Every structure is written in C-alpha cells, then in structure tokens.
Amino acid sequence: MSELAQTPGVIPYVDHHTGPRRLLAIDIPHLGHTVRAYAPIAGIDGRQYIVSWGSVSFEVPADRNVHVSVHLQTNSGRDYTITPFASTVLPPHPAPIRLVAQFVPSQGPEGALVPVG
User: Fold this and answer.
1) Alpha-carbon distance values, 35 to 53, 54, 72, 98 (Å)
2) Core vs surface per residue 74-103: b (16+ CB within 10 A) or e
3) Rounded distance between C-alpha atoms, residue 84 and residue 53, angstroms
4) Using CA atoms, how far apart are residues 21 and 96, in angstroms rounded to an integer?
5) How far apart are CA 84 and CA 103, in angstroms?
6) pLDDT-based confidence at 81, cuts 50/70/90?
7) Bridge partner residues of 25 (DSSP)
8) Rounded Cα distance, 39 and 70, in Å
9) The whole model's pTM is what?
C-alpha cells in the first residue's frame, strides 16, 4: 500500500498499478438548488465513486494518462434527462493537481474540469 493510500481522506487507486502515484483533489461546488436535486459522482479511470459536495482527494498514477470525470446524478426529470457532466484526461506528471468542476446548467449539460492555481 502506498503512502498516499494510507493518508486519511484520500481514496486509494484500486486498479493494478506498480508505478509512481500522485494526489488529485477535485472541488465539486454546488449551485444552490443542486444539493437537493443532484448527487455528485467522481470517476477515475472508469470507476465511479459517490462523493460529497466540496473537495475530495484521490490517489492516481503519475506515470501515465488518467481519465477523470464528474457528473451530477439525479432521479428527477422526465424521459431522457441529461445530467451535468465534465471529463478530462490528465497527462503523466509527478506533481499533485487540484481541479474544480464547473457546471453552468443554462449552457447545457457539458461542464469542465479546470486546474486550480
């Protein structure tokens, strides 16, 4: 088990990977009404994690691409409700990274994961 995986509050990388790892923090701010209508879900290399609003930390590979996504799941709506989502591929890099999920419902369901700092 890596050092990051042993750090309180960090979700460990669960797929097989023997290379170096780094810390990924994702900020998922709510937009007022979204707290009642949506549940945030973060994805790392296809594995989905139901998370809370605010900041969540993951251990991810540092030596290869990593797919990161956030979507807001809802049980409300009719027929085919498209929920807000954002996705990116992180290139290999050893340094920790922080992303913020940005959603603007009035501009459609596609949001963005933007680096902070």
Assistant:
1) 8, 11, 10, 22
2) eeeeeeeeebbbbeeebeeeeeebebbbbb
3) 14
4) 9
5) 7
6) low
7) 57, 98
8) 10
9) 0.90
